[in-house]
Amino acid sequence: MAFAWKTAGITYNRYLAVAARTVRRSLKEGPRLQAERRGEMDLRFAKWQGGKQGDMKNLGEANEAAMAQVAKEQ
């Protein structure tokens, strides 16, 4: 039996991001605000090709864009 996130065509990290966002949104107002602050990402990454670094991108924004793209394709 295949995992649901694999069948949906998303990575495990994206699956975890969606699950975490769902749990945060289900909380009451006070705890929800605290959990949303903890869920903010401030990580950056860059792809390297041919020994040269590409543009730096925010990991959170890149994940959101990728999830939106997957949702659009379905």
From TrEMBL:
Q: Name one Pfam family in it.
A: ATP-synt_Eps
Mind listing the GO biological process terms from this record? proton motive force-driven mitochondrial ATP synthesis
Looking up SUPFAM superfamilies in the UniProt record yields:
Epsilon subunit of mitochondrial F1F0-ATP synthase (SSF48690)
Q: Which InterPro entries match?
A: ATP_synth_F1_esu_mt (IPR006721), ATP_synth_F1_esu_sf_mt (IPR036742)
Q: Name one GO molecular function term.
A: proton-transporting ATP synthase activity, rotational mechanism
Q: Gene3D superfamilies, per this entry?
A: ATP synthase, F1 complex, epsilon subunit superfamily, mitochondrial
GO cellular component annotations of the record: mitochondrial inner membrane; proton-transporting ATP synthase complex
Question: What species does this protein belong to?
Answer: Cyphellophora attinorum
The family annotation for this protein states: Belongs to the eukaryotic ATPase epsilon family.
Return the protein name: ATP synthase subunit epsilon, mitochondrial
